[in-house]
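Appendix C: a fully annotated inverse folding record. The material below is reproduced so that readers can follow the format used throughout the book. The structure is listed first as tokens, followed by the designed sequence.
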């Protein structure tokens, strides 16, 4: 049987692989066996100088939409060691492949290959990346800002809820058309299983982590000093203060109400009216080092899902997790602690 010729993507993969491996490594692509077997594009054979033999199935695709990647992962895993090849592989598709233990390569870009004793990782961190289809008018450009984030937030606040377009439109105040575009984007990126009147999250953890990794909004941050003794007294003062418009505690002060983790030295809260809080509490503005931080949010839906605990209002649990993760350090450890304690999505 004559071995079928490599297509351009296959040829580019072979050239790229030879460029990242030492010249002493033996490399061959077996297309004849692949053509007789199940739908595998090729088998890769590697021979390092040690004499070890490494064999992996290879799948190449012209596009790497996360939903398609998630669909083919089970049979790629069934093949044994495998490597997925596409011209562009976005961050979501990379995460799906890596978590499944499947290597991947962009012939003209990045790669992560872990086969036997071989480990090669090449990441062009300075290059801007776009998910496949990000500029398509059928999808939203960014799930984690603007109106789309309102949909994401409610999906994560109620992760087990089946959602119709009408239900989500009512909850968020958005049009059903925009909700539909957002749902399509979430389904494309393998976060949501779409169904008539019953769309559900399929990977809430990955969606939450992707939100936390997205750029933070440019909220108006005001540091203040409140003349009370200790942050506990400051929280009690907030509890006893009549409502001054919408507000919600976040960061360590809010986490302490759910799962106390470590001592904290300041209180952070979102609010609509910074001036009202200044006047009511006699706050003193400072450039840094305040014990109270007032955040006037760019995105007013940050208050969605807020709830009361011990007489004060906290941001929704997903918003709290994201805020802690973005702060890093001990705050990020607090986010992990909240999840481990079952407070992120309590039953």
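Designed amino acids, in order:
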């Amino acid at each position: 049987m004559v071995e079928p010729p490599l297509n351009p993507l296959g040829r580019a993969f072979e050239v790229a692989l030879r460029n990242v491996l030492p010249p002493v490594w033996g490399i061959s692509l077996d297309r004849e066996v692949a053509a007789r077997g199940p739908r595998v594009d090729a088998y890769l054979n590697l021979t390092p100088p040690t004499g070890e033999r490494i064999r992996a199935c290879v799948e190449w695709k012209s596009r790497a939409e996360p939903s398609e990647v998630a669909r083919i992962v089970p049979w790629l895993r069934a093949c044994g060691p495998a490597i997925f090849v596409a011209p562009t592989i976005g961050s979501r598709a990379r995460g799906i492949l890596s978590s499944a233990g499947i290597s991947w390569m962009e012939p003209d870009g990045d790669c992560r290959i872990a086969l036997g004793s071989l480990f090669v990782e090449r990441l062009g961190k300075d290059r801007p990346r776009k998910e496949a289809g990000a500029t398509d008018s059928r999808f939203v450009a960014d799930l984690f800002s603007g109106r789309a984030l309102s949909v994401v937030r409610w999906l994560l606040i109620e992760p087990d809820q089946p959602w119709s377009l009408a239900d989500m439109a009512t909850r968020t105040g958005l049009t059903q058309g925009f909700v539909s575009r957002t749902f399509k984007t979430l389904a494309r990126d393998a976060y949501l299983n779409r169904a008539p009147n019953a769309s559900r999250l399929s990977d809430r953890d990955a969606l939450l982590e992707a939100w936390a990794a997205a750029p933070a909004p440019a909220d108006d941050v005001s540091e203040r000093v409140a003349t009370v003794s200790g942050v506990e007294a400051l929280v009690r003062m907030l509890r006893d203060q009549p409502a001054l418009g919408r507000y919600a505690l976040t960061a360590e002060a809010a986490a302490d109400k759910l799962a106390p983790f470590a001592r904290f030295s300041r209180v952070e809260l979102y609010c609509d009216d910074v001036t009202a809080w200044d006047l009511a509490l006699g706050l003193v503005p400072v450039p840094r080092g305040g014990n109270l931080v007032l955040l006037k949010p760019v995105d007013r839906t940050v208050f969605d899902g807020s709830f009361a605990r011990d007489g004060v209002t906290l941001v929704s649990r997903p918003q709290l997790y994201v805020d802690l993760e973005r702060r890093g350090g001990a705050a990020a450890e607090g986010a992990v602690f909240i999840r481990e304690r079952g407070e992120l999505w309590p039953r």
